[in-house]
Amino acid sequence: MDFNQASEENLFDHARIVGKPHARIDGRLKVSGQAPYAYERHDVAAGQLVGYPLGATIAKGRITHMDATQALKAPGVAAVVTTLDVAPLNRAESNVARLFGGDVVEHYHQAIAVVVADTLERARGAANLIEVRYAEEDAEFDLEAALERLQNLGEPAADVGDVEAAIAKAPVTLDAVYRTSAQSHAMMEPHASIVDWSDGKAMTVWLSNQMIAWTRQALATTFDIDADAIRLESPYVGGGFGGKLWLRADTVLAALGSRAAGRPVKVALPRPLMFNNTTHRSATIQRLRIAAGEDGRITAFDHAAVSHTLPGGSGEDAVNQTRCFYAGENRRVAHHAIDLHLPESADMRAPGEASGLAALEIAMDEMAEKLDMDPVEFRILNDTQVDPEDPDKPFSQRHFVECLREGAERFGWEARNRTPGGRREGAWLIGHGMAGAYRGAPTLDSGARVRLARGRLVVETDMTDIGTGSYTIIAQTAAETMGLAMEDVEVRLGNSAYPVSSGSGGQFGAASATAGVYAACLALQKKIAAQLKVGAQLKAEELRFDQGRILGEGVDLALADVGDGDELVAEDKIHFGDFKEGLQIGTFAAHFIEVAVHAYTGETRLRRMLAVCDAGRILNPITARSQVLGGMTMAAGAALSEGLEVDRARGFFTNHDLAGYEVAVHADIPEQEVVFLETPDAASTPLKAKGVGELGICGVPAAIANAVYNATGVRVRDYPITVDRLVEGLAERAAHS
Amino acid sequence: MHPPDQLGRHRDASAACGDDHSPCTLHVNGTRHDLTLDNRTTLLDALREHLALTGAKKGCDHGQCGACTVAVNGTRINACLTLAVMHDGDEITTIEGHGTPESLDAMQQAFIDNDAFQCGYCTPGQICSATAILEEIRAGLPSHVTENLSTAIDLTDAEIRERMSGNLCRCGAYANILKAIHQVAEAHS
Ligand code: FES
Ligand code: FES
């Protein structure tokens, strides 16, 4: 089905199931420990062995010697495959560093061997017996130093108007530098795969992955085999956040181990290996200049940023959202990805915006203060309904101002602390902050197959559910379209035997995959119409599917009676047309935060978090709310505790486990409220839906930073805002008061 | 046992790997299992790999995430941080002992009612911990945030959050987990 123009009024505008709260249909399996994650599938292949990976302990250089003799002799060991045993594997498009093969080490903890044994303990023990010698090469690991040397914040991606002239003549300007730390996805389920490639021909892979079709193709490229010979299953994914978009070493090692041992092999990346072996979000250094008139209208933005990447990658583009979030005639943005030999940086939840808005939305707060304006009103004044670089290109929908007003009202923004450092309860300084959020709402073509037999519908698509609620919203979409109850729909996901979907990522999954399922259901309706044995041939559009029945002129039939007991199968995909390119389609939010900062220690405690979101039709308010809560929680970590620390001499992340890398824990998270505006967007999909999974992390770190400033009067522009970054300023202020 | 030689190295690969086995009896969810286990096998791997009870999850294998939480003789423990052979004769309760998909216990149901999970990977550990903390509070075991040690412990948000902080949830379901625990606590009181 082609989606070539904005939707008219349709069944989703009068929905019974879509848009209504429905508990997760995969919930019972998850709470009882019965949902099968990748590493747990004892039943899928007999005779599984365990592979244990070995990681390189240099960041750049060559392996001059590897000796696995002792490992091979160790009890229970079936095979050892070292990187020197294998010619360099092809690099799939989505991988920057080679995943295995050859003597070149491109980053620390790059996989250099896998030991296959009958148990984990034996494989791990034997892996310790492998001797490795390296010829280490000099490399650069320090973003600050590289930036200083380069003196270059990048070639502009956009340069509209005359930024320098606008800044020179503006009465109010800001010029400040902000830093975000490198971050790890740290999803709770480690990367894991079981691979059966025993005969070296057909390959079956049970893994934890967000993108089935991409990863299948990446495997085909990596091993130079036919994609048709590869089958992938990933029905449950224990969190991804972008870290499981790609083929990674767990699958490659399990495949090589399986071929070598002639048995199915499972590999889970040990947690301490994950941070340096897999991908992460790059750190950024961002310089922002903003100019405005006395009236508070912004006249210029200049946003330049650097991030780091292995040679050939793209880093973290923190400037893109600045192109169209706020009005202003003059604008320049530039991103420069600097080559460093740290592990591979790649996408993490809201790649770009999460870091970019963390800086931009502090800068907006600083501007509001210089202008002596309410930061909410400052943003409202600078709202735009068109792309500021291309005023002929409107936003399909943009209710950012409503988010701001609704949020201010609900939060009690009027009663906020108005003097930085001015409100105190005992030893605690109380502050309030807010920020805006903007994240695009992309869609990707997405397919599905539906099977109808005896009134029960099965939906099959290679879409994944990474905690996002795909199972549930897909069932809701199918039940709505076919006039069935939720109980009559079964959803099967994450299998390369099913039609290719959008997959999960980039906030495109929910909107795209449900549209694809809708398309497949319409194809089924056509088949049903063609089968009806009534006088005149009816078109599918002339039929209504309601409460398990098919109704139309001269037709009143139970869906259970269609097809004479035979299964009816239909397949289709949604194809999104070019018309979308004439529009900016995005999601928006306003975030409001209350913090308490300890006046002597600088400890920051979150007290309240509120998000008001404009994200199209919300398909299921329960699962969508959880997505936003999850984003806010991850953002709390990004703001206050998360940061990969670089060993600048040896080139690796030192805090490479869950003790050293501090994600938000339960005690860090206060009362959280999420509000969705009713804003179906007809230009987005037939369901008028957009994603929310990434919106929730956008802007929140800045709202927290602004609240900390409001509490203390100490402006911190470097994340995470840890006590060491606050105490000096707190002491200074205490000395002067 | 194979003692290390004078250089501190082990004599052969088998010794270097510490490849010794011991008999061990575990009572898991009321069922007795007589096992012979590699001494290095954690309780978590004994459950997941030897008994195919994969409800307890492995998030870190280092006692840092709580995904592997189970009850041993009524006390919650990180099953990855203890060796199976140390639990000869012990009573273990895993998520599989709480309820099945067809017959959930109150905490499992409360997690569904409050959407207290997303990806579900931390969830069995959260449920095992949540069940245990209500017992701990009832039994008067104080936590870091308990205000008064001489009276019964109030079931405050702070008390629950503190006690649940060893169970990470990267999906960020904490707000809903809190509600689920309150739901069960209120039903009991
Ligand atoms: S797996 Fe045991 S604490 Fe993480
Ligand atoms: S539900 Fe995914 S980590 Fe908790």
Automatic annotation (TrEMBL), chain A:
Origin species, per record, is: Halomonas dongshanensis
Protein's recorded name? Xanthine dehydrogenase family protein molybdopterin-binding subunit
Q: Where is the Aldehyde oxidase/xanthine dehydrogenase a/b hammerhead domain?
A: 32-138
Q: Which InterPro entries match?
A: Ald_Oxase/Xan_DH_a/b, Ald_Oxase/Xan_DH_a/b_sf, Ald_Oxase/xanthine_DH-like, AldOxase/xan_DH_MoCoBD1, AldOxase/xan_DH_MoCoBD2, AldOxase/xan_DH_Mopterin-bd_sf, PaoC-like
TrEMBL record, chain B:
Which positions fall inside the 2Fe-2S ferredoxin-type domain? 22-98
Q: Is Phosphoprotein found in the keyword set?
A: no
User: Which keywords does this chain's UniProt record carry?
Assistant: Iron, Metal-binding, Oxidoreductase
This protein's superkingdom? Answer: Bacteria
Which CDD domains does the entry mention? fer2 (cd00207)
**Parts forming coiled coils:** none
The cross-references to InterPro entries, in alphabetical order and at most eight, read: 2Fe-2S-bd (IPR002888), 2Fe-2S-bd_dom_sf (IPR036884), 2Fe-2S_ferredoxin-like_sf (IPR036010), 2Fe-2S_ferredoxin-type (IPR001041), 2Fe2S_fd_BS (IPR006058), Aldehyde_Oxdr_Iron-Sulfur (IPR052914), Beta-grasp_dom_sf (IPR012675)
PANTHER family noted in UniProt: OXIDOREDUCTASE, IRON-SULPHUR BINDING SUBUNIT-RELATED-RELATED
Name-wise, this protein is 2Fe-2S iron-sulfur cluster-binding protein
Q: Which species is the source of this protein? A: Halomonas dongshanensis
